[in-house]
Amino acid sequence: QEQLVESGGGLVQPGGSLRLSCEASGFSIRNFYMRWYRQFPGKDREVVAVLTTGVGKHHADSVKGRFTASRDNAKNTIYLQMNNLKPEDTAVYYCHADGLMSGELWGQGTQVTVTS
Q1: 59-86: b or e for each residue (b if 16 or more CB lie within 10 Å)?
Q2: Distance CA 74, CA 76 (A)
Q3: Contact partners, residue 115, CB within 8 Å, separation at least 6
Q4: C-alpha to C-alpha distance for 77 and 96, rounded to whole angstroms
Q5: Rounded distance, CA 31 to CA 77, Å?
Q6: From CA 18, how far away is CA 21, in angstroms rounded?
Q7: Whole-angstrom Cα distance, residue 79 to residue 60?
Q8: pLDDT in tens, the chain (116 residues)
Q9: pLDDT score recorded for residue 107
């Protein structure tokens, strides 16, 4: 069964760092674009970062220079390193894969709260 499981969220002070992980099972991430999204209360999910099947990666303007997405195909896991966190980064963060035989796949989400 295809599955994505996120971990690493939590409570952090402004200026702090967190690293989110998203472990895939039931398929190999090396063959698929992987994305990180976040969702603010009452808003639609927005893309934070895109990881291509190669070495390409793209980050939203709002997080450029602070967040870095990466993949480890051997561990079938993607990561989101978040530095210099701001209160406006508070959201639920999701990992996502599409193009699977079953369609698209979402993780369960992990809460990130940035507050003093």
Answers
A1: beeebeeebbbebeeeebbbbbebeebe
A2: 5
A3: 11, 13, 14, 87, 90
A4: 12
A5: 13
A6: 10
A7: 15
A8: 899 999 999 999 999 999 999 999 999 999 999 999 999 999 999 999 999 998 899 999 999 999 999 999 999 999 999 999 999 999 999 999 988 888 899 999 999 999 99
A9: 97
